[in-house]
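Good morning C.,

I know you're traveling, so I'll keep this short. The sequence:
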Amino acid sequence: MNLPLILSVGLLLTASLAAQTSTLSGRVVDWNNVPILNASVISSNGGLPAATDVNGNFTITGLRNRVYTIQIDPRGDFLAPAEFDITVTGATNLGTRVIQPGVPITVQVVGPTGAPLLGANLSAFLPDGTKLFTPHDGSDVLGNAKVSVPITPINFRVLPPVGSTLVPIYEDMSPVVGTTIAMGTRSMRQGWSITGSVVRSGVSPLPVANAELIATSQLTGEVIFLANKRTNTLGAFNLLLPFGLYTIDIVPALGSPYAARQMFGVFVTDYPRNLGLVTCAPGVLLSGTVTSPTGAVSAADIDIDIYTANGHKLFTPNDNTSVAGVFSVVVPTGGTYSVRVDPPVARSLCGIRTNPVVVNAATNVGAINLVPGVAATVAVVDAFGTPIPGATAKVRDSATNFEFVVPGNTADAAGVIHAVVPIGTLDLTIQAPQGATSAPLVLNGIPVSAPFAGTVPLPQKTLRTHVTGLAGSGILSVSNGGDIYIDWAIANQTALLQSFTVEVVVELPSGVDVPFIPQIPLEMPGPLALTLPFWVPTPLLPANELGFLQKFMLRLRDAATLQLLDESYVYYVAL
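The tokens, ready to paste straight into the viewer:
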């Protein structure tokens, strides 16, 4: 006989028998130390399932000596399922496992026609991206589904049945103990495939891999959940979007040598669309440190805006300072940029905009020092005493006309501006949102040396105008000189006949106007209000203005004095 062979077989049999005798036992209780009966305990990567007995005890058999993922389904609406890893060696006891309180989430999922969807999948994630264990998370033939989640903020998702082209449902939730989140009936929208490739601009269009794409509806402000939101190794993307008009942010991966960019006015109708090659400019790091007399200005409570030499704001995601006050953003190579720092009102610091700097390689602008300011609390009301939410304040130096960066310069929902202004003699301009009935008010030569508060009533306009884009807030990208859509509203708020002129220009961020339509004299009886829709051509812009947001501006002036009566604008992008 072959003795070595017999010994080898014996050893294998012994090892196999030893592996089969490994077990995992334990006890499952709730947060009050009450045993949970009939909870399902499963080893998701091997072993036989078990159920807890009246004392909450369980034993899983048929395990090997290795790491297992254990899932506990407590089978109770107000008990949170649990999932964890454990190393099993022989007879292993994990002790007592406490199940935390949970909240049930219920939903009926239907398709675009209202028909129930079978096989939609419910998922819950922690804010850091950790996926939670949610057993029984598929919808039934009536589209009904229910899962339980822990008492913690979550990202909740409903994914369509496998193979469908429906758009997932996404919602942030903050469950509260003892409640049920009843979502009711939710309809999944039909999605359409929007494809393209992100490449480096220039003569060699190298792919920009692993870039994140973020699609935001210009009509509703909804950020669409994208199951596949990154470019592949060839820079290609495939987004599933419902009908609408979108801004798409393209954010290269951390450490990628490319600048982020935005695409405006991306239409999605009822068919797939290919956007072709979408370019990102080669980029370099622009960095610096924001400081104050009390130390670094830190930790996601300060915005860094980067402006080009001709006044355009760059799209620079992740531009907040670190705990050490350091910021670092990628900007297109070869530009001239200034850094605008807007600290939070609570820090009582003035904002600042630095002098321009040429950036041909990685550049550190050094320390940006913010100085203390004083609190200005201004309640803005109209001629009838009604608060004006969204009113803004502009602050200039009375002697030099220099415009300051003013933290908190926009009125809250109660019409109150809580701002930080510098010490000195200031000119203050308070302005209602465009389209409002109130005219701007300019207060010159205000001495400021200490915190102040007051109420500012804005005068009534005689003529009012308001311009809105497609569906109210749509920003269109068009060829240079191409047509954009506007709704033009005009109102004579007096009982008199008003003589005025209409002036249409593109107001560049540098303050230069590109004229389009010569001043047109008009008359309008009052009181009267009109809204007129137009597709209008835009003026040709110089090459260095292409690809940026522009203001298509309509102004009303007094026919006799040419005094500005009102103005309004829509944004668009010339390509």
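Safe travels,
E.
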